[in-house]
Design goal:
With 229 residues, this protein is an alpha+beta fold. It has two domains: 144 residues, no CATH class; 58 residues. It has five helices and seven strands. The chain is extended, with a radius of gyration of 23 Å.
Length: 229
């Protein structure tokens, strides 16, 4: 894992695909900023890759929200709808069983059990096949010479328990989505040891600088740390 002495490290080669797909292999320029960053405020178990991923995902979401991106409410809405529906169904069946005899309540209880199972299965299926590993999906509007809208999707995963992989899809439109200005797709990865020190401290500044570089790779402008074109 990276040492707490704040020594800058080089990232692994990255692969970029755009529309039309273009591949490149380039490491980010070394930075001296890591040495002057404040000490990490978030600490994780550096042997637990799932915990590390969650911490890095949280930094990604916070950074994008700070850049005026509005997150999509689709996934939270589905989670709440299916979750609350299953809870209401379960509580209703329990209350009903308290008002009537057990034998009379059996049909209702069976319906409640089947309904609860279906709702929970639907929720798990949504997370696995629809939401997948999506960390952020949202958009923001900005005024250049016209109103442009950036649509962004970020999916993250881990590889061999040592690498953090980011899949980023960006499209910029205008005229209420009728005109496509830019579209790109970027896939990058870094070793978790470059983002988390040996004591489990998450280097938030380094993660944000890396994300800014990924957004630059995707062709985004109007982001802190990026120059507008």
């Amino acid at each position: 894992m990276a040492k707490n002495t704040k020594t800058a490290t080089k990232s692994a080669p990255r692969v970029v695909t755009q529309s039309p797909p273009v591949q490149s292999s380039s490491a980010p320029a070394p930075t001296d900023s890591l040495a002057t960053d404040p000490l990490p405020t978030v600490t994780v178990n550096n042997a637990n890759i799932a915990e590390i991923k969650l911490a890095l995902d949280d930094i990604f979401k916070k950074y994008l929200l700070d850049q005026s991106f509005t997150p999509s409410l689709l996934h939270p809405t589905v989670h709440l709808a299916l979750g609350y529906s299953s809870v209401v169904l379960a509580l209703s069946s329990v209350l009903y069983s308290l008002r009537v005899s057990f034998e009379d309540s059996k049909p209702v209880l069976w319906v409640a059990v089947v309904g609860y199972s279906l709702l929970q299965t639907a929720l798990r299926g949504w997370k696995r096949w629809v939401e997948k590993d999506e960390v952020f999906k949202g958009k923001r509007r900005r005024m250049v010479k016209r109103i442009e809208t950036d649509h962004l999707q970020v999916i993250t995963s881990t590889q061999l328990a040592t690498r953090y992989v980011v899949h980023l899809a960006l499209s910029t439109t205008s005229n209420n989505g009728k005109s496509l200005i830019h579209k790109s797709r970027v896939v990058v990865a870094r070793g978790v040891g470059e983002l988390v020190d040996e004591d489990g401290g998450v280097e938030e500044g380094e993660v944000k600088r890396w994300l800014a570089g990924v957004l630059r790779e995707a062709g985004m402008v109007g982001i802190d740390g990026l120059k507008d074109e």
